[in-house]
Amino acid sequence: MKVTYTDVLVIGGGLAGLRTATGVKERGHDVILLTLVPPKRSHSAAAQGGMQASLGNSVMGRGDNEDVHFEDTIKGSDWGADQKVARMFVNTAPKAIRELAAWGVPWNRVKKGGRQAIINAEKVTITEEEDAHGLITARDFGGTKKWRTCYTSDGTGHSMLYAVDNKVHEQGIEVRERMEAIALIHENDRCYGAVVRNLMTGELVAYIAKATTIATGGYGRIYSVSTNAVICQGTGQAIALETGVATLGNMEAIQFHPTAIVPVGILTTEGCRGDGGVLRDVDGYRFMPDYEPEKKELASRDVVSRRMTEHMRKGKGVPSRYGDHLWLDITILGRKHIEKNLREVKEICENFLGIDPAEEWIPVRPTQHYSMGGIRTDHRGESQTLKGLYSVGEAACWDLHGFNRLGGNSVSETVVAGMLVSEYISDFCESEESAINVSTSVIEAALKCEQDKLDRLINNKDGEDTYVLRRAMEKIMMEKVGIFRNGKDLKEAVDELEQLIFRSHNIEVTRSKSLAANPALVNAYRTQMMLKVALTVAYGALLRTESRGAHSREDFPERNDKEWLNRTIMRWKDPDMTMPTVSYEDIEVEEMELPPGFRGYGKDMTIHHPKTEERQAMVDTMRLQTEEEGLDRIEVQRTLMPYSELLPEKYQGRNERLDERFDDER
Amino acid sequence: MNALTKGLMMKDKAARKIKINILRFDPNIPNDRPRIDMFELEEAPGMTLFIALNDIREHHDASLKFDFVCRAGICGSCSMLINGRPGLACRTLTSTMEPEIMLAPLPLFELIGDLSVYTGNWMRGLNERLETWIHTQEEVDVERLEERMEPELAEEIYELDRCIECGCCVAGCGTIQMREEFVGAVGLNKIARYRLDPRDKRDDDDYYELVGDEDGVFGCMTLLGCEDVCPKELPLQSKIAYLRRKMVEVGLNKKD
Asked: How far, in Å, CA of B169 to CA of B161, rounded?
C-alpha cells in the first residue's frame, strides 16, 4: 500500500487550485497539488477576454466600485447567488488583480488622451484622464454597468495562469502532474484525502491530508459541443458525489456562451462584442437591438444566447451542413484593433475557419460554456456535509454566480476564491479538529475498492462499449437539456440517462488492456462518472419548474421566487443506486441586500416571493436613514447586510481608487 | 467567403480518403518495439488532427496515446512532428496537407507512449532553473492603487508572455541536439520577457549567471529553426540576438 501524507491536498492545477496552494503554503502548511496536465495547460489558459475587478481607472469605468459590481453580479445571477459570498468576492477582486499585477501579469494599461472606440456600431472618441495613465484599464463586457473587465489583449487567462504557476515555482510547491484523483477517502463524514491514479504508470496511491480541495473546473464535456477543454469532464464533482456525503448544488445551471465558432465550438471572447462587435443574421441584419433595445449584444450571456436561438428558430439563421448559425461581425473594429486586442480570436479564425476576421464575418452559435453548479460549499469553501473537503473555482457552487455568471467573473472568482479559501483551510489546519484520525484499514479498503473497479473494467467480457454510452449521453444533453428546456424532453433525458448509468456498470475496455497509460481505461471510468454528473444536471432541470438565469423552461417561463428561490442540492447516497436524492436550500429574502427584482430583459414575468416587498421597503428605509445620517457607502452597506467579518482579516480592508483615494495619498 | 467556410455551407463533395501513419511505441509494455501503424479515414470538412486522431481512437484503436487539452491552439499540449515538422496538432487542418500524413512524437522529451510526450516536466525544470518569476523585495499593498506601467511596455511584455511552452522550438532546435542542457528559445525568450519587466528587480549580471554561457544564449548557433516553427510567432530571432548583445556586454565588463 502506497500512502503519501501532507497537510493540504489540492486536486486540480488551474488558477483556483494554484492560488489555493500558494495561499496555504504562505501560511506555512505543506501542500501537494495534483493535476491531470501540467498546470500551464489547464483550461484557465483559455479564458480570453478578461477579469472583472472594480478598479474604475478607465474613463468608462469611473465611478465603479464594489456596490456596482455587486449589483451587476446579483442581477446577472437572477438572484440565485449567495449575496454575502458576492460581497466577499467584489471586495476582494481589486486586491486579487493588484496582487496579480505584482506577480507579473502584464495587464493592459490606460493611456491618457483620446482613442477611437466602437460603441453601438458607431465610432466614438474616448478621452482618458491624465491621472489614470499607466493604471490597469478595462473593457466592456455583457451585463455590466461599467467597463470593468481588465485584460491582457485576449490572453488574460493565459497570463494569469502563467503568473500564478510561476509563483508556485517560486514557493517550491510540490506539483505532481498527470495524476488523477479517482475517489475521495472519507470516514464518519470527514474527508481525509483521495485515491490517486498515476496516468503514466497506472499506479494507485493514497494521498492523506488534513484538508482536501477540489479545484477541477466544470463539467462541460457532458455535452457533445462545448467550449470547454477536453479535460473538463466533471470528475471532481463526481468523486465528491460518490462519497454519498458531500452534496452538489444547482447542477442544472449551465451557461451557454453566445459566440463559439461553428462547428468545433471553440470560443471567441465576449471581448469581441465588448469592443464593439455585432451579431448578424442570414440577411446580414443586426437583430439584437430588436430584442434588447438597451443592452443589445451586451445583454447578459444567457439572454443573448436565448435571443440568438429564438432568432434562428424564426428561420433567420444561416444554414450550414452543421445546422444553423449566425454571424459575429468584428470587421467594424478594424484590423489594427483586432491584431492587437483580439489576436487569439484572429488566430482561431485563421486556423480553424480559414478566414480573416478583419475582412469576414465569423460563423457562431450559442454553445455550452460554463458550469454554475458544482460542489456545494459554505462561504468558506468547505462542503456543508463532508468536513475537511473544500472546493474552489468552477468546480464549486460557492455560490457566486447563481443561475447565470457574468463574463469576466469566472477567472476573477478562481483567484479570489483561492485567496480566501486558502485562509480558511489554513485556519482549519491550525485547529485541533484537523487531526488525521483515519485508520489504515479504511485507506487500504479505499485503494482496493478502486483497484477492483479498474480490474473489472479491464477483465469484463461481452460488456458495453464506452464510446456508445458516452456519445449517447452527449447527445441527450445537447438535445434535451440545452438552452431551452421543457418537461417532456427533460423527463426523457432523465430516463435515458438512468438507463445509461445502469448499462455503464457493465462497461468493457476493449482492444486496450494495459493498466498503465491507457486512454481506453481512462475513458471508461470517466464516462461512468460523467453519466452520474449528467443525470444530476438533467434531473435538477426537470424538477425546477421555473425559468431562472440560464435555466430556461418553455413550459414554465416565469421566474418563480415564490416557490423556487432556492438551490438544488443533490446527493448520491448509495453507489448502487441509479438516481440521486434531491433537497432544496432556501435563499433567504430577509437577509438580502438586494431583494429580488426585474433584471431588465424582455418582459417582467416574475412571480414574487411573499417577503420581497417587505424586505425591499425595509432596505429602502434603511438606506434613506443611513444616508441622511451622513454615512458613506461602505457604512450604508454594512447596515443593510453585514459581511466583512466573514472575510479573513487580511482581506477586510477597503480598496483605493482614483475617486476614492486613501487619506495618505501616495 | 473563402474555401473553407464555403465548405461548411455546401453539400458534401466526394470526401477525400486520407492515410495517417503514426510512429508508435509504449514504454510501459515489456518488449514493445517502435512501429508505424497506418489508419485510413474519410476526411470531413474542417477536420483537424485533433478530430482525426480522436476518430482513430474511437473507431480503430482505443489504445492510441496522444495529448489534447484546449484543442484551440492555446494550451500547448499537442505538439508533435507533423510530416517531420514540429507543430500543434489541434489546429492543423488535414485539408492543408497531402492525403498521406506522417505523425511522430515530439523528439527530445520523455515519451509517455505513441504521440504523448512529457513536455510539462521539461518546462517545469526550465522554469525552476531560470527562476521565471518576478524577483522583488517589495511587499505589495493590495489595497492601494497598483504600480503604474507605460501602456506600450505592458504590451511589449505581453508579446513575449504569449509563449505557451509547447516545446516546438526545442524540437526544432539544432543546438539542443548537441547540447542537452541548452535552455532553448523558450528559455531565452523568458529571460527576455523578465528583463523587460520593471517589476523584476534582477539586473543583467543576474541574467548573465543564468544564461551567460554555452548552455544559454552563447550556445545558440543561430539556425533559428525555433522561429520557423513557433506556433505563436514569437520574435525569437530578434530577442535572442538582443539578449546575446546584452550578455556580451556583461561578459566583457566582467573581464575588466
From this structure: 15
Could you check whether the bond before residue A38 is cis, i.e. omega within 30 degrees of 0? no
Is A468 within 8 Å of chain B by CB?
no
A514 touches B at CB < 8 Å = yes
Round the CA-based radius of gyration of chain A to a whole number and report it: 24
The DSSP secondary structure of A110-178, one letter per residue, reads: --SEEEEEEETTEEEEEEE-GGGTTSB--B--TT-SS--EE-STT-HHHHHHHHHHHHHHHTT-EEEES
Q: CA-nearest residue of chain B to A164?
A: B133
With a CB-CB cutoff of 8 Å, which residues 132-191 of chain A face chain B?
133-137, 152-153, 155, 158-159, 162, 166-167, 169-170, 175, 177-178
The mean per-residue pLDDT over the stretch A344-359 comes to 93
List, as ranges, residues 341-400 from A with C-beta within 8 Å of B. Answer: 344, 347-348, 351-355, 360, 363
CB atoms within 10 A of CB A474: 18
pLDDT tens for chain B, 256 residues: list them: 444 554 455 445 678 999 999 999 999 888 999 999 999 999 988 899 999 999 999 999 999 999 999 999 999 999 999 999 999 999 999 999 999 999 999 999 999 999 999 999 999 999 999 999 999 999 999 999 999 999 999 999 999 999 999 999 999 999 999 999 999 999 999 999 999 999 999 999 999 999 999 999 999 999 999 999 999 999 999 999 999 999 999 999 886 5
What are the DSSP calls for A443-455, one per residue?
A: HHHHHHHHHHHHH
Is A169 in Cβ contact with B132 (below 8 Å)? yes
Residues 6+ apart with CB under 8 A from A491: A542
Chains A, B: CB pairs < 8 Å: 243
ipTM for the complex? 0.95
SS3 state of residue A400: coil
Pairing state of beta strands B79-82 and B100-105?
antiparallel
DSSP A571-596: E---TT-SS-EEEEEE--GGG-SS--
- Strand A278-280 to A149-150 pairing: unpaired
SS3 B36: strand
Confidence (pLDDT) at A517: 86
Give me the mean pLDDT over the A180-194 stretch. 98
pLDDT at A516 (0 to 100): 84
**Are B131 and A172 contacting, i.e. CB atoms less than 8 angstroms apart?**
no
Give the distance from CA A158 to its chain's centroid: 16
Half-sphere exposure of A513 (CA within 13 A, CB side): 5
pLDDT digits (tens, 9 = 90+) for A332-341: 999 999 998 9
Alpha-helical runs (H) found in B110-182? 119-130, 151-161, 168-171, 175-178
Backbone angles phi, psi at B101, to 5 degrees: -120, 140
pLDDT for B1 equals: 44
Tell the residue number behind the cell numbers 434531473, with chain if given: A539
A257 counts as catalytic:
yes
Mutation site for A-interface testing, chosen from B92, B144, B202 by largest number of A Cβ within 10 Å: B144
pLDDT-based confidence at residue A513 (cuts at 50, 70, 90): confident
Query: What is A12-79 written as a DSSP string?
Result: --SHHHHHHHHHHHHTT--EEEEESS-GGGSGGGG--S-EE-----STTTTT--HHHHHHHHHHHTTT
Among candidate residues A250, A242, A218, the one with its CA nearest the CA of residue A15: A218
Q: How many Å apart are CA B90 and CA B81, to the nearest integer?
A: 12
DSSP SS3 for A406: coil
Query: Which residues 6+ apart lie within 8 Å of A411 measured at CB?
Result: A15, A44, A47, A50, A51, A156, A157, A160
Query: How does pLDDT run across A586-617, given as a tens digit for each residue?
Result: 999 999 999 999 999 988 999 999 999 999 99
C-alpha span between A243 and A183 (Å, rounded): 8
* Segment (H or E) for A362: strand A362-371
- How do strand A248-249 and strand A254-261 relate by DSSP bridges? unpaired
